Amino acid sequence: MLESLSLAAGLSWGSGLRLYLTVLLAGVLERLGFIHLPDTLSALSSPWVIGVAAVLTVAEFLADKIPAFDSLWDAIHTFIRIPAGAVLAVGALGHADPALLTVAALAGGTLAGTAHLAKAGTRALINLSPEPVSNVVTSTAEDGLVFGGMLLALFVPLVFLVLMVGFLMLAGWVLPRLWRGVQGGFRGMATHMVSRLVRSRHD
Q1: Are the C-beta atoms of 45 and 105 separated by less than 8 Å?
Q2: Beta-carbon neighbour count of residue 194 at 10 Å?
Q3: Predicted model pTM
Q4: Of 22, 7, 8, 12, which Cα lies nearest the Cα of 115?
């Protein structure tokens, strides 16, 4: 049961950050025989699913490192990552009791949504700064975080679940402050643009 919970949490959390990389890792590791996924997730090891996930992983890897475009990518994927996290969490528990699967869907969607909002908010705040290097560094760090996190979820489940509890506690404290910072940044940018427009008209 611990392994199933860790798999559900890992797939949901990973979906909120890097959906396609998460699916690709699970599928490839299952295909190579390193892990055994429940029958309800056996489709992830299909060559077709692995191929499509690989292409989309490369696309996301590139898109996520372009300032401003990464925020557009995140906005679009709000409607993809969260439902995917819920579906994968349900699949991770296999043929469990319907009530438990309902809870898994709600928890999986919430975990994916929390990870997604933390990512999207951080990137929006970074995009308000003029230097693009931090964007690339942050994106690369997220790639490594998902890769390492998924390995922990699959091979060291107890450690991963403890880390997820810490992540949720930290996110509950950080997210409100993060989004206030984003709102303040946008207000500051709007004020700066208006003042420049007014000065240009006076000139």
Answers
A1: no
A2: 10
A3: 0.87
A4: 12
